[in-house]
Amino acid sequence: DGGITQSPKYLFRKEGQNVTLSCEQNLNHDAMYWYRQDPGQGLRLIYYSQIVNDFQKGDIAEGYSVSREKKESFPLTVTSAQKNPTAFYLCASSILQGGSSDEQYFGPGTRLTVT
Amino acid sequence: DQQVKQNSPSLSVQEGRISILNCDYTNSMFDYFLWYKKYPAEGPTFLISISSIKDKNEDGRFTVFLNKSAKHLSLHIVPSQPGDSAVYFCAASAIGNYQLIWGAGTKLIIKP
Fold first, then answer.
1. How far B51 CA lies from chain A's nearest CA (Å)?
2. Would residue A81 be called left, alpha or beta, if left means φ above 0 and alpha means ψ between -120 and 50 degrees?
3. Rounded mean pLDDT of B82-95?
4. How far is B92 from B82, CA to CA, in rounded Å?
5. Which of B4, B45, B97 sits opposite A101 (nearest CB)?
6. What is the three-class DSSP state of B83?
7. Nearest CA to B74 among B58, B95, B60, B97?
8. Tens of pLDDT along B53-67?
9. Of B99, B101, B106, B107, which to mutate for an interface test with A (greatest number of A Cβ within 10 Å)?
10. N- to C-terminal Cα distance for chain A?
11. How far is A93 from chain B (nearest CA, A)?
């Protein structure tokens, strides 16, 4: 049963602590993405990776870090430098074909609350 | 600068009627457009897409229309059903670019 898993569903942290959000996919997709969603806003791209050991900053990368050591995994670390970390975080993956974008498949999301 | 705009934050439609969700874009390099549906506290799910070489794509109750000259696309849902109540996002990508640019979403409410 292929898909994208994100864990945990809900995460609570104290201000000043780093936290890592997990994202795993078994779809054999090349590309993986991290988005943030805030109320009343669209999805904003944090980081993306098209290939193992390579990743690119998105529109709002400041205060975040990622790694792509395996094709299946793309964890996101929310560091203490992120000014407003409380948000709904979504991980996605897609096949890369023909130089154009393809549908992105999303995980169920992680709601992070920092107090 | 928002490249993809969904100007209606919400839309209320009677069950059985047609729902029309609109999306405008500014970047003439966009060549692929997608619609996603999202329920609260879940990830978006892909609904339907259209390439810039077409002006219409249909899949069951869902049809997407693309007007390139007006830089406008719309999603039609006919007939609307209660399960269609969700937030709908429009997204676009440019030639040779794997990133999707997302609109802010429109919340569709289907009234019984």
1. 10
2. alpha
3. 93
4. 27
5. B97
6. helix
7. B58
8. 999 999 999 999 999
9. B99
10. 36
11. 11
